[in-house]
Amino acid sequence: MSFQQNFRHYSSKSKSEIDLTLFPVERIRNFSIIAHIDHGKSTLADRLLELTGTISKGGHEAQMLDRLQVERERGITVKAQTATLVYNYQGNDYLLNLIDTPGHVDFSFEVSRSLAACQGVILLVDANQGVQAQTVANFFLAFSQNLAIVPVMNKIDLKNADPESVAIQMKNVFEFEPKNILRISAKTGLNVDAVLQSIVERIPPPKHCNINKPFRALLFDSWYDRYRGVIAVIAVIDGIIRNGDAISAKHTGKSYEIKDLGILQPNEVSLSCLQAGQVGYVVCNMRSSNEAKVGDTLFKKGLTNVEEVASFRQSKPMVFAGVYPMDQSETAALRSALDKLTLNDSSVTVAKESSAALGQGWRLGFLGLLHMEVFNQRLEQEYGAEVIVTVPSVPYKSELLGEKNIKLYGARDIIVNNPAQFPDISIIEQFFEPMVLGTIITPDVYFGPIMSLALDRRGVQIDSKNIDNSRIMMQFRFPLNEIAVDFYDALKSLSSGYASFDYEEDGFQESDIVKLNLMLNGEIVEELCTVVHVSKARKYGKEICLRLAETIPRQMFQVAIQAVIGGKVVARENVAALRKDVTAKCYGGDISRKMKLLKRQAEGKKRMKSIANIEIPRETFIKVLKR
Fold first, then answer.
1. Lower Cβ count inside 10 Å, N or C end of the chain?
2. Is 591 found in the same domain as 503?
3. In a domain, 313, yes or no
4. Does residue 310 lie within any of the structural domains?
C-alpha cells in the first residue's frame, strides 16, 4: 500500500503501521516558490495542492496558504507556509514539501530561511509584468546556495501578456534558455501539471541525508500555540524522530521530550515519526522565542560534537521604532504579545525602552517600513494590543572624541538607532550613515522621473543596462534613511506601478547629519525627534511641522510647533486655538466691557496653556515622516 493510501485511511490505522521505507530519500523533494510580489505564488500553491489531492478543488478559500488576516487584507504573503504533497509520477509516489514565500523586499529573511531547508526553487515570473527587482534578488539568493532553479512564466492567459518578450528578459538576466521556461496559468490551471513533473525531474532529493545516523534536524520556522507552546517546523537531515524521544537544541543547550510530530497538509496531521529528508513539525514544550531560534540544530539527546546543519545569514534590522502600550496597565499583556509574535517573526529584534511621555515600552527593529506596519497590524488583530508607534529611524554610527568619552561609552565607535539617544555633537569626531545598494527595474519611459527621484534622495548611480527593448535595470547607492520610509511608494507612484525596487546593505559612509528636535509649546517631544542630513534639515523640518499641524487636534489654546537644530529654530507652524465668542452677550454699551471679557479669556487661556497636556493622536507617529 502506498503512502498516499496509508494517509487517506490514516485515521483508522495505528501510527506504527506507517512504513517509512515507502519513502526513501530519493523520492523526497523539498522546494520553495520564489517571485516578486503579486506574481502568483500563492495561486500556484493552490493549484499544486489541488492537483495532488491535498485539498479539494473549490472547497477552500483562494490563496489558502495566506492564512493571516493581514495577508488577505493587503493581498500579499507575509509569512512563509509549509505544505506536504504526495504526487504520483510514472507509477511512483513522491513526497513534495512546498514552502510558499513572501515577495516583498521587507520579508526577504522569510525567503532566506525557507531556502535553507530546500534543494530547489520554482522561480515565478509574471508574463505581463516581466522580470522585477525582487525576482532578481531571489534568483541570486537561490543561486548563491547552489539550489536547482525551475523557471516558470505565469499569467500567460492575460490579454496583455507578452511571453516572448519576458522570455528574452529571463535569458538576458538569468541566462535561461526560452525552451526550458515553463509557461503556465496558475489561475486556470493551464500546464500546472508540468510544474509538478519538473519538480520531480529537475530538483534533486535532499543531500547528505542518512536515515541510519542519529537524529539531526534544522529548525527553520516556528509559531506559538496557546495550549501547546512553540510549534517548530523542521527539516530532518539524519535519522528518525519519534514521539517520546528526547532531543536537545545546540543553540540553547536545553533538552526536550517530543510530545507530538507530523506533517503539514497544510493543516497539522500527526504521525508516529519523521525520517531523514522529510519536513514536518514537532511539539516539545518549548515555551519562549529565545528557545526556538531559527537556524538552530536539533539533535538526539546525549550526542556530542554535533555539526550544525546550516549557518545562513541572520537578518539585520534596517528600521527601528519604539512601541508603547496605549495604557501602561497593559504593559504585561503587550510584553506577552511581543514574545509570541516575535516567535512567529524572528527577524524582529526587541529591546526594552522607556520614555518620559509614553512610559515603559520596547525598541523594535524591522527589515523595512512595510514590515513594521504589518507587525503592528498583527499585534492589533491577533492579540488585541493597541500600541503607540514612534517615528521610525535607521541605525547610525558615531566616532567619539577623547579617551574620556571612549571609556564612558566602552568603545570608539557606537551604533545609535534611537534619535532620543543621539550623542551630543561636541563629543563626536564624525558621523556615519548606513548605505544600501538599490536595484530598480522599470520601463524606459519612466527613466527620467525615476532618475530625478533617485538623485533627490541622494542616490549615486552605479550601473545601468537594458534587459530588453523596453525595460531598463539601474543600480544606485542610497543612504538608507532616504529610502526606508516612503521611497517605494514614491517609485510606484512615478511609474504608475510598473517599476520595482530591491536593496541590500552596503556598509556605512561618512555623512554630515544632525538631530532634528520637535518642540510643542517649547517642550521637546523626544518621541517625534529624528536624524536628517544637514542639506535637508530645513525642508524636512518644515514638512514635519506642517504634518503635525494637520494631525494634532486644536486645543483651547494655541499650540506652537517648532523644528529645532541645536538652539536654532528652522521651521514653525501654529495650531490655532478653539475660540468661544465671549462677547456675544454684549449687544451694546461701553467698549471697555468687551475688552474686560476678552482680557479675562486671554488670561484663562494662558493659565490653561501652562498646565495643560497636548493630546497627540497615535497616527501622528507614522504620518509625521510621510513626505
1. N
2. no
3. no
4. no
- Cell match 536654532: residue? 568
Rounded Cα gap, residues 348 and 367, in angstroms: 8
Domain that holds residue 540: 514-623
Q: Are residues 293 and 236 in the same domain?
A: yes
Question: Is 91 labeled as ligand-binding?
Answer: no
Q: Which helix (H) or strand (E) holds 593?
A: helix 591-611
468 is in an annotated binding site: no
The burial of 73, by beta-carbon neighbours within 10 Å (0-12 exposed, 13-18 middle, 19 or more buried), is given as exposed
Q: Is 9 annotated as a binding residue?
A: no
Give the pLDDT of residue 627.
Answer: 43
β-bridge pairing 28-35 and 120-126: parallel
Distance in angstroms (rounded) separating the CA atoms of residues 577 and 327 = 27
251 in a labelled binding site: no
| Residue 38 counted as an annotated binding residue | yes
Q: How many domains does the chain have?
A: 5
Q: Is 590 known to sit in a ligand binding site? A: no
If one counts every other C-beta atom within 10 angstroms of the C-beta of residue 601, the result is: 15
CATH number of the domain encompassing residue 139: 3.40.50.300
| Shared-domain flag, residues 88 and 170 | yes
Compare 291 and 440 and report the one with higher pLDDT: 440
CA separation for the pair 446, 427 (Å, rounded): 45
On whether 285 is known to bind a ligand per the annotation, the reply is no
Residue 42 assigned to a binding site: yes
138: helix, strand or coil:
helix
Does the annotation place 37 within a ligand binding site?
A: yes
Virtual torsion, Cα 603, 606, 611, 613, nearest 10 deg: 130
Predicted confidence (pLDDT) per residue in 496-506, tens digit: 878 888 888 88
Q: Cα(438)–Cα(462) distance, rounded to whole angstroms? A: 9
Distance (Å, whole) CA 602 – CA 605: 5
Per-residue pLDDT, averaged over 461-485, amounts to 88
Q: Do 179 and 76 belong to one domain?
A: yes
> Interhelix angle for 487-494 vs 447-456, to 10°?
160
β-partners of residue 278 are none
Establish whether 41 is an annotated binding residue.
yes
Residue 154 annotated in ligand binding: yes
359, 389, 419: which is the final residue of a domain?
389
Q: Among residues 176, 202, 228, which one ends one of the domains?
A: 202
* Least confident stretch, 11-15, 20-24, 69-73, 116-120: 11-15
**Does 417 appear as a known binding residue?**
no
| Ordered alpha helix ranges (H), 92-222 | 108-115, 133-144, 163-174, 192-202
User: What 3-state DSSP class applies to 330?
Assistant: helix
